[in-house]
Amino acid sequence: MLSTLRSIVQELNGINNxxxxxxxxxxxxxxxxKTEVCSVYLYDDKSGCYVLKATEGLYKSAVGQVRIxxxxxxVGLVGVREEPINLEDAQKHPxxxxxxxxxxxRFGSFLGVPIxxxxxxxxVIVVQETQNTRRFDEGEEAFxxxxxxxxxxxxxxxxxxxxxxxxxxxxDQARDVAxxxxxxxxxxxxxxxxxxxxxxxxxxxPDKRCDNVExxxxxxxxxxxxxxxxxxxxxxxxxxxxxxxxxxxxxVYLRMLHDHALPGEVxxxxxxxxxxxxxxxxxxxxYVRHFEMMGDHYLRERAVDIRDLxxxxxxxxxxxxxxTPEYPERTILVSDELTPAMxxxxxxxxxxxxxxxxxxxxxxxxxxxxxxxxxxxxxxxxIPVAQLDGRELIVDGYEGQIFASPSNELKAFFESxxxxxxxxxxxxxxxxxxxxxxxxxxxxxxxxxxxxITDVVRSLSHGAEGIGLYRTEVPFMINERFPSExxxxxxxxxQLEAFAPSEVTMRTLDIGGxxxxxxFPIVEENPFLGWRGIxxxxxxxxxxxVQIRAMIKASEGLDNLRIMLPMISNVSExxxxxxxxxxxxxxxxxxxxxxxxxxxxxxxxxxxAVYQVREIAARVDFxxxxxxxxxxxxxxxxxxxxxVASLYHSxxxxxxxxxxxxxxxxxxxGKPVSICGELAxxxxxxxxxxAMGYDALSMNASNLPRIKSxxxxxxxxxxxxxxxxxxxxxxxxxxxxxxxxxxxxxGIGRFIRPERSGSGARELxxxxx
Length: 769
Ligand code: PEP
Ligand code: MG
Known about the structure:
- By secondary structure, this protein is of the alpha/beta class.
- The chain is 45% helix and 16% strand.
- The strands form 3 sheets. A 9-stranded mixed beta sheet has the order 8-12-11-10-9-13-14-7-23.
- Phosphoenolpyruvate (PEP) binds next to strand 16 and helix 21.
């Protein structure tokens, strides 16, 4: 069964057409289970019924004709119960109903399994046998459940593909189809999708067509000759070291590159109008599927060689083409996984929105998007990215949705939200030079989180009073090697100078987790619990010391530097880091720099540090809470994983209690405490943190003006009253509602989201979750 299952799954994954996939499933399952009937019913939203879409064993004429309501028959019951129903004699079941047009009256044994994707029942798969012949056994039931789980992904993907092309699963015209992900950065954008993809990655090549077939074939042939030459050269070079059977591998590669083999098929695809990378992707995938389905282990392994060959051909094709896509006026950047480098490539002023398949609301790229004020949706797991290139899209960063093929009506609706946002921003500009204080005169400084130099310009114009968190890893991530001490000094000087004499808190390199350096890859099973932040830099004192020296040198004459250590989980890490910082400071002084010793602080972002905050705070000059990581670790919810995004609650009672305790304990030992996680830039979060006694809030530049406006609109009684109210509640959902209600009552509800957004779009659009 296992190998049958694997080969069905392989075959299924390679089919792009839904009807073909359903027909294949029905046929393969019928054969594999040696049963008389296998049928697939899909739920049709419009009619509210399950429609027979494919069958082996029932009358084919019934396909598309039989419609079963959820309240009808056994198929309906499987859908309602959301679990398998296995009956030896279906006739005796009170819910049994025959549909004469299918010819199913002969069949008595029934096994139906729901097809479920993300909690939504998409359909039901059924196998049937002649009356009283047998009951399907446990193994068969498990087999069908496994097939159904695979089929669910294929159907969801196909629904999404059809919807993007303007066609629903039932074949009707579909416009305004909404795809749900996770809100990444607030705001709305209307623009054109540009799919960006990592080099030599066949899977993420966008589906495009070519204008000049002959030129495209020439380009492809040049790539084939180049790869052929490479393979020959490598083969010759390695020949003396290889045994004959290993040398044969190069022969296999060369044979595959023969004109009549793979290249010929790619050329056929190009003649059909595809551009060379898409043609190559289609042919390579077809070969890979073919090999992976083979019973023989050796031949199955050859799929790896085909993939490798495909990558080599693609990389030569890409050498010849400009890798910089043409960015339209209003670019919506779309990628399987957005990276900071990709954002940096879009010309200034043309990036209006972003969409990422991977990642979630607290992924670092989402934080960067918020800092840049670019509306973003993350975690659109089922969306066929390759098809979004060149399409008109709407990004709704409030609700975490995108809309493809929007109607004029939907566009007009979102344009009105954009106008409302612009009015709100205009109103906030005049607050720039006003202090951040409550109506009753309680002052709290607002700092900014930075990483890119553009942030600095924006922060100054938004009235930030200093930098509460400079993420030094950002300049490391957009480089192709570790930046030198001189280069780092220049980056850091820019930040320090822009804000002098106000303080600038620079965090030491915090890589690992979802922040990768291409030139220093860290591959781990569990990266957020692995080698991250201070753990990496203490293991690499040469990297840490260069960074500290660069920071200290950059602060000469300004003396506004504060150094902050990320991911501290015990006091010895602080002591080791302090030892290295003193060493670097003495070295730099010995080189003749005139300096004061910068203050050194730590981030509290690991639960262990919450419990030890007194001991930690006693050893340092200041403490800053990283609520993004603290939330992920307290709740055991990966901040980067869209599947669990709905469990990432910044207002979870455990998170709020931890935040209260940190503020209290720091003050008890006489140390200042601030917060630099995203909660500080959330209107409700800022009010609660103010009431908890935080000394400063640090947030992205885009949120800063609205937080200032929120704080200037309330008094401390309101903040303390709200905190007392939420600390008595036990559910994060209820706490969120309670906070939102309080903001609305205080007349500042517009800062959560524009009044017009939300339900309006939902009424206009069709959901494609
Ligand atoms: C945090 O964890 O809250 C934080 C500010 O750091 P980062 O988001 O960069 O991990
Ligand atoms: Mg962190």
